[in-house]
């Protein structure tokens, strides 16, 4: 069985923690591990489970690779989507890639951003689904509802005797239904026939591809060309962009699951949540006696049922409030009522319309060699705190419009400055003139910390001409 982990979402409803270049699946929202790492951890202990295949946005490739490394996952396959095409093409290319060696594995398709506290129940449901998938069924996992939710799609079980499956606790799918209004949701829950649509699946690769060929051959044709034209880029597999762009954009539910007569559902009761909003995160998080979720440096006085998050070390104090979401980051603060958190995405839409950087990235920006924090900026200058991981090296590069001063705070820096190479240690500095080819490397065994002061007429990140780069960006 091959785990397929879909990691392409943007998580705009969890802004300002989640940004398009660092979305929620890479954040430690429900535990000390990131959501992607929690998804990987849930696979541990499943019999005959292969190394995962991660489908992710090209912009997230180094984040995925680093989080796999931190979780000690080796030999995973990272498949890069050049653009978003929804879940049907994403799963199709994963299935085609999985069959490249002539094998036909079972595919356990999971989202990277779900919370499932009861791992034992999840693994038991996978075992049930596995038996059904081996007979050619396309299995989806339906969440046993705990309330009448209007934010989820529903799956109706076929309860008729003549359509009972041979596998215990597995039901044919009668129909998929869209997100209902509240009265309809109450009726669904009371009937006992409906489950929440989790967006998780288990099926044999060839079984899925046969149904794609039957119902959406245009998706399969484009995805097959994208995989055939794929190229290796370091540890990544880069799909052919032109071919993948030809694929229609569609979900696996619409493309296949709602049309096939092979769909079955396995009920799952494991505390599942897709954490699609701040109120959903409040629901699954640990609360104190006042019903508050408090993350970071938080103080409360007579406040109840709030989610309070200080991400940058500042004190967040709440006095006499109820049912609020307050999230403080280094460059943005969100204050919202729990009943209106679905509208957070409208804030992100406005930020994008105004071309604000807060929509896409945090003040701290992660790179394959480490990260940088833009700590100050003004007319013709910018100050960054740069961290270079041990053994890592920035590209050999130059700038047309800016000069740079580097001051080493801790660690050791090997600097190429024109035709000279020097070693700098704590409290030493160097000046890089405009137009001079330069590079920065950490030859030591501890992180290199330095302060960079940029000065010049233009300070944008696109003023970088790369000549050599070990991360394939030249």
Describe the structure.
The protein folds into three domains: 2-268, Alpha-Beta Complex (Spore Coat Polysaccharide Biosynthesis Protein SpsA, Chain A); 278-344, no CATH class; 364-468, Jelly Rolls, CATH 2.60.120. The protein is built from eleven helices and 28 strands. It has helices at residues 35-41, 61-70, 87-98, 119-133, 182-191, 205-215, 217-228, 241-245, 252-257, 278-284, 344-353, and strands at residues 2-7, 53-57, 77-81, 106-111, 138-143, 154-157, 171-177, 194-204, 231-233, 236-238, 263-268, 293-295, 298-301, 307-310, 316-319, 324-328, 333-337, 364-367, 370-378, 381-388, 396-398, 402-410, 413-417, 420-424, 429-432, 438-441, 448-456, 465-468. It has a six-stranded antiparallel beta sheet, with no helix packed on it. A five-stranded mixed barrel has the order 5-8-6-7-11. Strands 12-14-16-17 form a four-stranded mixed beta sheet, covered by helices on one side. A hairpin with a 2-residue loop joins strand 9 and strand 10. The radius of gyration is 25 Å and the shape is globular.
> Overall 3D geometry?
globular
Give the tally of β-strands. 28
What is the CATH superfamily classification of the largest domain?
Spore Coat Polysaccharide Biosynthesis Protein SpsA, Chain A
Q: Which radius of gyration do the C-alpha atoms yield? A: 25 Å
Give the number of helices: 11
Low-pLDDT regions: none
Distance between the termini: 37 Å
**Main sheet: which strands, in order across?**
18-19-20-27-22-25
Main sheet record: 6 strands, antiparallel
Structurally, the number of domains stands at 3
């Amino acid at each position: 069985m091959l785990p397929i982990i879909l990691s392409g979402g943007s998580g705009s409803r969890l802004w300002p923690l989640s940004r398009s270049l660092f979305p929620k699946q890479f954040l430690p929202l429900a535990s000390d591990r990131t959501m992607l790492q929690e998804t990987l951890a849930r696979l541990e202990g499943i019999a005959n489970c292969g190394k995962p295949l991660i489908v992710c946005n090209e912009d997230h490739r180094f984040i995925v690779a680093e989080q796999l490394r931190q979780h000690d996952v080796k030999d995973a396959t990272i498949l890069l989507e050049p653009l978003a095409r929804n879940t049907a093409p994403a799963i199709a290319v994963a299935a085609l890639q999985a069959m490249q060696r002539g094998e036909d594995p079972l595919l356990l398709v999971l989202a990277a951003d779900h919370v499932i506290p009861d791992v034992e129940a999840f693994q038991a449901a996978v075992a049930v689904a596995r038996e059904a998938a081996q007979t050619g069924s396309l299995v989806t996992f339906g969440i046993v509802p705990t309330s009448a939710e209007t934010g989820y799609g529903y799956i109706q079980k076929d309860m008729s005797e003549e359509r009972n499956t041979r596998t215990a606790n597995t039901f044919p799918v009668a129909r998929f239904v869209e997100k209902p209004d509240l009265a309809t949701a109450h009726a669904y829950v009371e009937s006992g026939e409906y489950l929440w649509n989790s967006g998780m699946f288990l099926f044999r690769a060839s079984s899925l591809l046969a149904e794609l060929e039957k119902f959406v051959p245009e998706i399969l044709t484009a995805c097959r060309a994208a995989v055939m034209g794929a190229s290796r880029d370091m540890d990544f597999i880069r799909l052919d962009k032109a071919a993948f762009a030809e694929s229609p954009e569609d979900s696996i539910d619409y493309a296949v699951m709602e049309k096939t007569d092979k769909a079955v559902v396995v009920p799952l009761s494991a505390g599942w949540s897709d954490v699609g909003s701040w109120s959903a995160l409040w629901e699954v998080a640990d609360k104190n006696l006042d019903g508050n979720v408090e993350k970071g440096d938080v103080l409360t006085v007579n406040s109840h049922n709030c989610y309070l998050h200080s991400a940058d070390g500042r004190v967040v104090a709440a006095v006499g409030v109820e049912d609020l979401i307050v999230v403080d980051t280094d460059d943005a603060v969100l204050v919202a009522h729990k009943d209106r958190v679905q509208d957070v995405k409208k804030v992100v839409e406005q930020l994008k319309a105004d071309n604000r950087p807060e929509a896409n990235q945090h003040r701290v920006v992660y790179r394959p060699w480490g990260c940088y924090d833009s700590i100050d900026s003004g007319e013709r200058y910018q100050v960054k705190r740069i961290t270079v991981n041990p053994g890592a090296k920035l590209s050999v590069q130059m700038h047309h419009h800016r000069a740079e001063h580097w001051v080493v705070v801790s660690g050791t820096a090997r600097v190429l400055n024109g035709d000279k190479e020097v070693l700098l240690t704590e409290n030493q500095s160097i000046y890089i003139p405009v137009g001079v080819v330069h590079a920065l490397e950490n030859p030591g065994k501890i992180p290199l910390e330095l302060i960079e002061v940029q000065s010049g007429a233009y300070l944008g990140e696109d003023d970088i001409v790369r000549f050599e780069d070990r991360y394939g960006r030249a």
